[in-house]
Amino acid sequence: SALAPSAVFFALSKPLAMFFAGVGRPGVSSIASLIGFLVLLATGAPLAARFGAVGAAAAMSASSLAIAAHLALSLRRHSGISLLEMLLPKLQDVAFVRRALQTHRG
Q1: What is the full DSSP assignment across 13-32?
Q2: Is 81 left (phi over 0), alpha (psi -120 to 50) or beta?
Q3: Positive or negative, the Cα torsion across 38, 44, 50, 56?
Q4: Is 82 helix (H, G, I), strand (E, B) or coil?
Q5: What is the pLDDT of residues 67-105, one digit of tens each?
Q6: Structure pTM?
Q7: How far apart are CA 39 and CA 33, in angstroms?
């Protein structure tokens, strides 16, 4: 689907936005949303006019990418965690998931 990239970027953005809300910095998410809106505003009509629904989906993906990028870079500035560390699971993460699944199965 043409909106698949947008869904992936949204899935990355949601926990980051919740993090900033949880640490009392909801303005970071508001700025990210504003950036996404401006990207959509700048790209939506031209891409949709030229490429139809696929162009509109590309504009939405660009907007979602801008939001995710702002949130990820803001987290990096806030916590010092590199983007690679954010995205790559560690052995401890795998062990945690394994234990959680075993506990859930009973």
Answers
A1: HHHHHHHHHHTT-HHHHHHH
A2: beta
A3: positive
A4: coil
A5: 999 999 999 999 998 878 888 889 999 999 999 999 888
A6: 0.81
A7: 10
